[in-house]
From TrEMBL:
<dbReference type="GO" id="GO:0004810">
    <property type="term" value="F:CCA tRNA nucleotidyltransferase activity"/>
</dbReference>
<keyword id="KW-0479">Metal-binding</keyword>
<dbReference type="InterPro" id="IPR032828">
    <property type="entry name" value="PolyA_RNA-bd"/>
</dbReference>
<dbReference type="Pfam" id="PF01743">
    <property type="entry name" value="PolyA_pol"/>
</dbReference>
<keyword id="KW-0819">tRNA processing</keyword>
<dbReference type="InterPro" id="IPR043519">
    <property type="entry name" value="NT_sf"/>
</dbReference>
<dbReference type="Pfam" id="PF12627">
    <property type="entry name" value="PolyA_pol_RNAbd"/>
</dbReference>
<dbReference type="InterPro" id="IPR003607">
    <property type="entry name" value="HD/PDEase_dom"/>
</dbReference>
<dbReference type="InterPro" id="IPR002646">
    <property type="entry name" value="PolA_pol_head_dom"/>
</dbReference>
<dbReference type="InterPro" id="IPR006675">
    <property type="entry name" value="HDIG_dom"/>
</dbReference>
<dbReference type="InterPro" id="IPR014065">
    <property type="entry name" value="tRNA_adenylyltransferase"/>
</dbReference>
<protein>
    <submittedName>
        <fullName>CCA tRNA nucleotidyltransferase</fullName>
        <ecNumber>2.7.7.72</ecNumber>
    </submittedName>
</protein>
<dbReference type="InterPro" id="IPR006674">
    <property type="entry name" value="HD_domain"/>
</dbReference>
<dbReference type="Pfam" id="PF01966">
    <property type="entry name" value="HD"/>
</dbReference>
<feature type="domain" description="HD">
    <location>
        <begin position="281"/>
        <end position="420"/>
    </location>
</feature>
<keyword id="KW-0808">Transferase</keyword>
<keyword id="KW-0460">Magnesium</keyword>
Length: 492
């Protein structure tokens, strides 16, 4: 195996990982030979090489080539199971190939490989443009120079398995350091989104960001303004869904980038008043996020993580200093829910996700009215009804919101919430709380009252629903009697 650096710089495990691209991923070798026979060069590149060296290469493979997009299409069409060309304007062709991730034809299970092949390129932004200008290059070294970070600027030429590392990405990988191939100023000028990517990779890989990169991020933070909300959102999502989101979020706040893309986060760093004490809302919110992550049971949950991060964003606007040195944040959950909706709309999140996150923010304090278990069954039913399908997430968010260092207080809160969950479970088993509905449906209401569809049916339905929440299941006869009495009162 050859390299632009000495191959001795690879340790045995890394040499096996890079060499294993051929042995364990024959699909890559097959593709490399296909391009070679057509007179083109192909290399595994970027995150795929980085992940191979970290021992975590999956089914998403990125390649770069000197072939132009139309030529890539022509080579892939007879070979791939599916092709998409939505990125062809940027020189990228995507494909799906069902293949074995091992050279063993008997024991190797078939996998769907997601493949992206991009023509050697360089890209830059006009000062006021939201879209990059793309120009094609002729060499892999040219292509690697335009990559975001050195750990993503390594390649393995196929099928020869030549390791290409002109910017010492391997050394930075070993040092767990994020640097840019060229100057960070030029890199971020070419694509300002890379500043967010620095924070995202710090969070995903648990890497440090080089001081000169942090300086450039700070000095150039305003450049992020030209990047579309959709691209910003995608990076924020990846950061939040990473293993170490606090690390990335701290970097965004410290460099001033958060002030431009998620200003509600740095706003949580409320100034302390020597006479008025309150917990650090900013650090508290990051801790709640981490504690929510610890409670996840089915993988990263973007809805829960966004709600945890944003649950207290209404506090700066509602802070009031009280006599005697206290601080209050009355109705911050309602203000925060509105703020969450506004910010998420600006970041182009889906309506469904906006509704779910803002609802969790709105409900996150509800439990604190539970006290020592004074809620009636009616109040428990309303808690479940208001949470709806978000109930399990609300459980996790509420538990995560306890960041007190007072172990006795924390244990008491946990026991109280355990008791609430047990009451919910009992009522759910007894009353099917997950689908709280009136004892009569709309057709039955119309037949009983002799009315046609309209506003009065909705009012009758709402009346019966309130009875159901207050009293639990009543049965059809009791519900009919109550409805008749309600209707007679309206008519009188």
């Amino acid at each position: 195996m050859h390299s632009t650096e000495s191959s001795d710089s690879l340790n045995a495990a890394q040499r096996a990982a890079v060499g294993g691209v051929l042995g364990a991923y024959p699909v890559a070798d097959e593709l490399g030979r296909r391009f070679q026979q057509a007179g083109f060069r192909l290399a595994l590149v970027g995150g795929s090489v980085r992940d191979a060296l970290l021992g975590r290469l999956g089914n998403d493979l990125d390649f770069t080539t000197d072939a132009r997009p139309e030529q890539i299409l022509a080579l892939l069409k007879p070979w791939a199971d599916a092709i998409w060309d939505v990125g062809i304007a940027f020189g990228t062709v995507g494909a799906r190939k069902k293949a074995r991730p091992t050279a063993d034809p008997v024991h190797g299970e078939l996998f769907d490989f997601q493949i992206e092949i991009t023509t050697y390129r360089s890209e830059a932004y006009d000062r006021d443009s939201r879209k990059p200008e793309v120009s094609y290059g002729d060499t892999i070294e040219e292509d690697l120079l335009r990559r975001d970070f050195t750990v993503n600027a390594m390649a393995v030429a196929l099928p020869e398995l030549v390791f290409v590392d002109p910017h010492h990405g391997l050394a930075d990988l070993a040092a767990k350091l994020l640097r840019t191939p060229g100057t960070p100023e030029q890199s971020f000028s070419d694509d300002p989104l890379r500043m967010l990517r620095a924070a995202r990779f710090a969070a995903q890989l648990d890497f440090e960001v080089a001081p000169e990169v942090v300086t450039a991020m700070t000095e150039m933070a305003e450049r992020i303004d030209i990047v579309s909300a959709e691209r910003v959102q995608a990076e924020l999502n990846k950061l939040l869904l990473s293993a170490h989101p606090r690390q990335g979020l701290l970097l965004l706040v410290d460099t001033g980038l958060a002030a431009r893309v998620l200003p509600e986060l740095p706003a949580l760093r409320l100034e302390r008043d020597e006479h008025h004490r309150h917990k650090d809302v900013y650090d508290h919110s990051l801790t709640v996020l981490e504690q929510a992550i610890d409670l996840e049971t089915e993988g990263p949950d973007l809805t829960l993580r966004l709600a945890a991060l944003l649950h207290d964003i209404g506090k700066p606007r509602t802070r009031r200093f009280e006599e005697g040195g206290g601080v209050s944040f009355h109705h911050h959950e309602l203000v925060g829910a509105k703020m969450a909706k506004k910010r998420m709309r600006e970041l182009k999140y889906s309506n469904e996700l906006i509704a779910d996150v803002s609802r969790l923010v709105e409900l996150h304090l509800r439990f604190h009215g539970y006290g020592e278990g004074e809620w009636t069954d009616s109040a428990v039913r309303r808690y479940v009804r208001d949470a709806g399908p978000l109930l399990e997430r609300l459980h996790k968010l509420t538990r995560s919101d306890c960041t007190t260092r007072n172990r006795k207080k924390a244990a008491a809160l946990s026991r109280t919430y355990d008791a609430l969950e047990q009451r919910i479970a009992v009522l759910q088993e007894r009353e099917e709380l997950d689908a709280i509905r009136p004892d009569l449906n709309g057709d039955e209401i119309m037949a009983l009252l002799g009315i046609r569809p309209g506003r009065e049916v909705g009012e009758a339905y709402k009346f019966l629903l309130e009875l159901r929440l207050e009293n639990g299941p009543m049965g059809p006869e009791a519900a009919e009697a109550a409805l008749r009495a309600w209707w007679a009162g309206r008519q009188g």
